[in-house]
Amino acid sequence: GENVEQHPSTLSVQEGDSAVIKCTYSDSASNYFPWYKQELGKRPQLIIDIRSNVGEKKDQRIAVTLNKTAKHFSLHITETQPEDSAVYFCAASKSPHDMRFGAGTRLTVKP
Amino acid sequence: DGGITQSPKYLFRKEGQNVTLSCEQNLNHDAMYWYRQDPGQGLRLIYYSQIVNDFQKGDIAEGYSVSREKKESFPLTVTSAQKNPTAFYLCASRTGQSTDTQYFGPGTRLTVL
To answer: What is the pLDDT of residues A12-36, one digit of tens each?
Structure first.
């Protein structure tokens, strides 16, 4: 089955810097790649997603890139702010009922 | 995602007891899911349901049971057979349309005393 690896497990940046989180997946049939942000004790919130027919997607300070050949995708956050501090999860799926999540990255943005 | 509710927010269980976690959605979503979240791990799928009166096991279904008698409701029972039930449980739902996006409830933190 699908296996999703996420790196790094923790990431600390200064406010205003960029943050990059990377994920790799094993199943080439995966075609949907969402990213979720989860604040402590709260529900995961979808922040951006990408499908396999697209190489890059942006939404203000957040962007996701997908390399199907290498089977990896990345989350880029620019101009980080303290409120970006949270745990970020990537996921990959080839069907709605087969979504596999990475282990998460704890991002800390220092003011 | 505000249309998905879970209760209770915190739940304490004695060993040997069954407990039921509630999940309700008013988004008219067809599919619903239960995930378990442990520290340092990604979400793992327990059960999912695509339509009323139908549900399928996920990766870690042992020790859990579900029902889907109504479209809006997908309760999860953690039975005494679940050896390590202390975790954060998340319910999610998704439309039956082409989008794969899942929307999560606020979660229930279960602790076994």
So the answer is: 999 999 999 999 999 999 999 999 9
Contact A97 B50 (CB under 8 A): yes
Say which of B31, B42, B104 has its CB closest to residue A43.
Answer: B104
Strand partners, A79: none
Which tokens sit at A49?
Answer: 């997603």
Whole-number Å distance between alpha carbons of B57 and A97: 10
Specify the DSSP class assigned to residue B100: -
Cβ contacts of A59 on chain B, cutoff 8 Å: none
Least CA distance to A39: which residue of chain B?
B106
Convert the pLDDT of each residue in A36-45 to its tens digit.
999 988 899 9
Q: Measured between CA atoms, how close is A58 to chain B, in angstroms?
A: 17
Please, are residues A86 and A105 in contact by the beta-carbon 8 Å criterion? no
